[in-house]
Amino acid sequence: MQQEWYIDWFNSKYYSMLYKHRDVLEAKAFIKKIVEFLESKFFKKKIQEQVFKALDVGCGDGRHSVVLNQLGFDVLGVDISESKIKEAQKYENEKLRFFIGDMRKLFFENEFDLVLNLFTSFGYFENLYDNMIALLNMRQAMKGEGILIIDYLNADYVVDHLIPYQELHIEGVTFIITRRISQGFVKKVIQIQDNGQKFEFYENVQLFTLQDFTSMLHQSRLKIVEIWGNYLGELFTAPESERLILFCTASE
After folding, report:
1. By residue range, what is the domain housing residue 15?
2. Segment 10-55, tens digit of pLDDT
3. Which of 65, 89, 124, 238 is the most buried (most CB within 10 A)?
4. Cα dihedral 81/32/213/123 (nearest 10)
């Protein structure tokens, strides 16, 4: 398996095809839910009444960033995928910008009211050090009273509901997907058949639990203040919740 599987996969047109059900409507509903919660619990003023800055780490094609911008945020999106950033840049304006970047090499400091890492855009790296560097960079990008939101898979749910084999047919393309749990990772092989051509891609994501995140966040001077279990904003319950959505603030 390639060490940096995510570069080839995220730049592929088949990635967008496979996950097309994760659309703008879903992003809009989720972001609106987040903003309502932030305004009620953390931000002293309505978003539209004050300039709030957001950093979307692992922004993909920008679907969450665009909604944040529409709701009044000054947004900067960063992603390692060149093709996804090119797509996102079509939506740029004075308060919405995108650039290619690696979350392990962010250079912001005390700049953003809100830092987002959504749709399992974490845990891709083979060693804990790289994941910690990415987390520390997100912490450094936050203002003192800023919020970090991490939207991750719920490891317990994934293990209990793992589908070892799946065959999908999307727009004339066949996707054969195999999944397994190995050495603390959920490993996925995506074999693609398209008009006589065959391709193979991988996903390799660490099965970080709530306890793992609690420890990593503590080391990054962050604490968890709210946990959602899905995109509807319902509270997290293990192992039933599909997602692990963490709202974090500085611990000092």
Report:
1. 5-153+208-250
2. 899 999 899 887 777 888 999 999 999 999 988 877 777 788 999 9
3. 65
4. -20
**How many domains, in total, are found in the chain?**
2
Tokens representing 250?
């500085």
Q: Looking at the structure, tell me whether residues 162 and 199 fall in a common domain.
A: yes
Task: Pick left, alpha or beta for residue 119 (phi over 0 → left; psi -120 to 50 → alpha; otherwise beta).
Answer: left
Q: Is 196 in the same domain as 85?
A: no
Is 63 in contact with 83 (CB distance < 8 Å)?
Answer: no
Whole-number Å distance between alpha carbons of 76 and 170:
32
Q: What percentage of residues in the chain have a pLDDT greater than 70? A: 98
pTM of the model: 0.94
Question: What are the phi and psi torsion angles at 16 (to 5°)?
Answer: -65, -35
Residues 126 and 235 in one domain: yes
Specify whether 51 is located in the same domain as 138: yes
- Residues 170-192 as b/e (b if ≥16 CB within 10 A, e otherwise) read eeebebebebeeeeebbbbebeb
Contact in structure between 168 and 83 (CB atoms under 8 Å): no
Alpha carbon distances (Å) from 20 to 23, 55, 98, 111: 6, 23, 21, 32
